[in-house]
Specification:
The chain is α/β, with parallel strands linked by helices and 269 residues long. The protein is built from nine helices and 13 strands. The longest helix has 11 residues.
Length: 269
């Protein structure tokens, strides 16, 4: 349980989808665990591959009864993409154009809609493809439905910004596809893809900045071997693997050379 690990760490980097909630509701014991960590003087920053900004994620958490008193901050892949598009100091973003085509649902528009960018209604008129995942019209179940528009983007030679490297998540018991799966197909067809989010170790720097803790005293908690566990390993941070989300095979962890400090059934105290 988390209580058996808490004394060894000052800060906790906690994944959201698959650890804290399933997209609809929190998992049993999560709110109590967060309260116990807070009362023990520990800091918690949520690190999510959600393709939207931290403020929007905070509102979603509040709707699940996770108030701001239970955590220190939020970092997301959407927030990282927003900052990179705004600042243009990241080499991958510096040379990108300012006209984008957005592939994704309306709720993800906060990643770009306050920036000095122009949105094109078609790939042919764009300079960038911003991929935040399946939209609400074609749905999140069949990636092949998105191939026609992705082929248009390939024909226009658009570099893709992937604002959610996850391949899939479990929402209320159902597996649904994410932006990362579309990016994987795009790259396989020869398209350029710029990923932001876990497992890129770069996203851990601003996350640690929010926590204010040293790496040896920080524990990352997640459910995905490909993003959470691999990302923590690349960043040089201890990791705890919880089995409430997408990955449940300990054999896969061994094959990937990933050795979490603990494997738990869930994020419980």
């Amino acid at each position: 349980m988390i209580r058996d690990l808490a004394a060894n760490y000052d800060g906790f980097i906690v994944d959201l989808w698959g650890v804290v909630h399933d997209g609809v509701k929190t998992y049993p014991g999560v709110i109590d665990c967060l309260a116990q960590l807070r009362d023990a003087g520990k800091k918690v920053v949520f690190l999510s591959n959600a393709p939207r900004r931290a403020a929007a994620i905070g509102r979603n958490l509040a709707a699940m009864d996770i108030g701001a008193d239970l955590y220190t901050g939020i970092m997301s892949s959407g927030e990282a993409v927003y900052a990179a598009l705004r600042d243009r100091t990241d080499p991958d973003f510096a040379a990108l154009g300012t006209v984008l085509y957005h592939l994704g649902p309306e709720r993800d528009r906060d990643v770009f809609d306050t920036l000095p960018l122009t949105e094109s209604p078609t790939p042919a008129g764009a300079q960038i493809l911003l991929n935040t995942g399946p939209d609400d019209f074609l749905g999140p179940n069949d990636p092949s439905i998105y191939e026609p528009v992705l082929r248009e983007c390939l024909a226009a030679r658009l570099p893709m910004i992937c604002a959610n490297p996850d391949l899939e998540v479990v929402r209320d018991g159902q597996r649904i596809i994410c932006a990362g799966l579309l990016a994987q197909w795009y790259e396989a067809q020869g398209g350029q893809v710029i990923n932001r989010g876990k497992p890129d170790p770069a996203i851990y720097a601003p996350t640690l900045g929010l926590l204010g803790t040293a790496k040896p005293r920080t524990l990352a908690i997640g459910d995905s071997l490909r993003t959470d566990m691999a990302g923590a390993k690349a960043a040089g941070i201890d990791a705890c693997w919880v089995l409430s989300g997408v990955d449940v095979s300990t054999q896969d962890a061994a094959k990937a050379g990933i050795k979490p400090v603990a494997t738990l059934p869930g994020f419980i105290w």
